[in-house]
UniProtKB/TrEMBL annotation, chains A, B:
The gene is proA. Keywords: Amino-acid biosynthesis, Cytoplasm, NADP, Oxidoreductase, Proline biosynthesis. It comes from Umezawaea tangerina. The keyword Membrane does not apply. Its EC number is 1.2.1.41. This is Gamma-glutamyl phosphate reductase. SUPFAM superfamilies: ALDH-like. Pathway: Amino-acid biosynthesis; L-proline biosynthesis; L-glutamate 5-semialdehyde from L-glutamate: step 2/2.
């Protein structure tokens, strides 16, 4: 069985590679036509998609999934419309393939260009939401990559129906259906076969919890990109505008607690702690947030808080909880963030230019905000049109990943019989 | 002992991380001053370096190293002068850190910039040549990274002497000596501790043979970049200028056989095989090259060749040998290259624009040459000033790696109290 599953995954990867070779030659016109065809077909065939989704929801309910999980799994006419609209947005974005990044004439007359090219075969491993299936397929297609999609077993019927629609749309415009393939999802081993298909797969992006990501990183032999773990801090500096600080802390924490750009820790400079701590403690309490405070913060808060443990500084709550601490200096805040942060998004609230410059330079993260909510770290907000995840690693892509981040480059050099001197 | 070695490597990585935090704040002026100080000190202290190198050479001779290996290990006043000059070249290059890659105002007034930042701690694993120690340290320093150098045990005395000079130079300009550290090299396990020091090390670049690289890829949990394996092809198209073709084949094969950009396979279109095969076979023979030919090539060659085996198509000879084959079509050449190539450099010789465009688009490699020798794939030739290796992978960096390829990016976002709407 295991050898069979391995062969099934590898066979899909080989078909994807063949499809990717065709996709390299596809013009933007052809790719955009496929995206528009996909969007139209999703709307037309919503009934069959919703039927499959209902089967997943019933099985999920029987298996005891929480309401929150069922909500992430659920599709509706409106949600299908949303993902179709997303494909049209991607069709409207510029084609990253062929973009010339650097170039010029060398002293010997060689004409050199560094151009963006597709990566080839891109694998995605993700959890419940079936909309990720369509988003990932669309971004992969536009950037010229064949997609191997390994979704959650709980969404198998929905994903199967969605991928059938996407594949038909590809064929309708004359592109290979194997540009989009769904991998077996009932056995965890299929993830392992995907992330070790070296030479067949060019990149795997795990999108999910810390457990999935660390499994992938530990076992992968194909390149991977870590996404989405966000132990995000807001630091309120001695020179902060306290109205801005309150608004930014509340927005960063409570806008949507389940997303990776939401704040999980609050650091307050000692010089303003007397005034700001009771104010923000009350505001957070009023917003339903539980504050896990260090002794100094707790002592000043004047509102009910719980005592923070060492673990709180490293916890990504993804809930109405926040760790809170008073720090003596800017550098203490920076050191705390660099020790406990996950390199996602960090914010400073300050009116002091020197403090802001030191914070943005020394804090080691994908995004650093000055006087702005951490909630802005998002591909759509950053003007990328769409995102396939938020990279928290330093190589290849850092922060929101759009189309450009799904490409590699190639040096193309034209000469007229140039040879290199032997010296 | 093993636990001790592990702790020794990790302790070095922790010191490197502290040093890297200082380096983030170092101005270009300071970094360039360090590079110039290093260059001067290498020249001044050449006697102690050469004494250490003599000890390595004597030990190497006693251990039976080949003359070729001893030559790679050997330093001289002239070679020391060369690496010192290399540091001055790096000092003259623009600082990649702080470069703004993208940026602008978002619709809501947020001011956003994507800037280049150092990676942090960069490890290098390399073989005999001690000049790599200085080159790598210089490039790492200029790009704001602390370097952990794991050289060959056969060069231990030389590397120790070189690193002592470099560290003194760093201190002389007020930068932490721990920006450059030499790791223990007598035990292979130190490589494993380096490539699994997740969270302490940001990137490891293996520079060496295919064995080293595949060990690193299989076992690393820190990000790595594969370098330098080059099964490089020259394809002579039906529409080739045969004078150009002969010159390019000879230059690609014989300029320097031991380097990764030298050609290892020759593909000739059937339409010109009658004329070109005997001509190039004779020219290669005259240049001392052994041709491993397929039956068609062999039948046309008119000069002594040896019969190619299946292995020849995948062999990186790094010697005066070349595999040679006649192909029926351009697409057969492309398919052969994509199957057997290592994604380093591939060349076409043709006067046909359509053939050149198809080749450059479909061939999957870091560099694709049209009517030019494969020998041009090189950081210095590409105008990067220096290179730390040639990446044959698709993520992060592809082709010659200069200063820019040793950086990551960071999104820096300035607002004035901006919060994100909850919708």
């Amino acid at each position: 069985m295991t050898a069979e599953l391995r062969e099934e995954v590898h066979a899909a990867a080989r078909r994807a590679r063949v499809a990717a070779e065709d996709l390299v030659l596809a013009t933007r016109e052809r790719k955009d036509a496929a995206l528009r065809e996909m969007a139209a077909a999703l709307r037309e065939r919503s009934e069959e998609i919703l039927k499959a989704n209902t089967a997943d929801l019933e099985a999920g309910r029987a298996a005891g999934l929480t309401e929150n999980m069922l909500d992430r799994l659920a599709l509706s006419e409106q949600r299908i419309d949303g993902v179709a609209e997303g494909l049209l947005t991607v069709a409207g974005l510029a084609d990253p393939v062929g973009e010339v990044l650097r170039g010029g004439l060398l002293p010997n007359g060689l004409e050199m260009r560094q151009v963006r090219v597709p990566l080839g075969v891109v694998g995605m491993v993700y959890e419940a939401r079936p909309n990720v299936t369509v988003d990932a397929a669309g971004l992969a297609l536009k950037s010229g990559n064949a997609a191997l999609l390994r979704g959650s077993s709980s969404a198998e019927n929905s994903n199967t129906a969605l991928v059938a629609v996407l594949r038909d749309a590809l064929e309708a415009v004359g592109l290979p259906a194997d540009c989009v393939q769904l991998l077996p999802c009932q056995d965890r081993a299929s993830v392992n076969y995907l992330i070790t298909a070296r030479g067949l797969v060019d990149l795997v992006i795990p999108r999910g919890g810390a457990g999935l990501i660390s499994t992938v990183v530990a076992n992968a032999t194909v390149p991977t990109i870590e996404t989405g773990v966000g132990n995000v801090h807001v630091y309120v500096d001695a020179a902060a505008d306290l109205d801005d600080a309150e608004a930014i802390v509340l927005n960063s924490k409570t806008r949507r607690t389940s997303v990776c750009n939401s704040a999980e820790s609050l650091l307050v400079h000692a010089d303003i702690a007397d005034v700001f701590v009771p104010r923000i403690a009350e505001a957070l309490h009023a917003a339903g947030v539980t504050v896990h405070a260090d002794p100094v913060f707790a002592g000043l808060s004047g509102t009910e808080v719980v005592a923070a443990t060492d673990e709180d500084w490293d916890t990504e709550y993804l809930s109405l909880d926040i760790a809170a601490k008073v720090v003596g200096t800017l550098d203490e805040a920076i050191a705390h963030i660099n020790e406990h942060g996950t390199g996602h998004t960090e914010a400073i609230v300050t009116s002091d230019v020197k403090a802001a410059r030191r914070f943005t330079t020394r804090v080691d993260a994908a995004a650093v905000m000055v006087n702005a909510s951490t909630g802005f770290t998002d591909g759509a907000e950053f003007g990328m049109g769409a995102e396939i995840g938020i990279s928290t690693q330093k190589l290849h892509a850092r922060g929101p990943m759009g189309l450009a981040e799904l490409t590699s480059t190639k040096w193309v050099v034209w000469g007229e019989g140039h040879v290199r001197p032997t010296s």
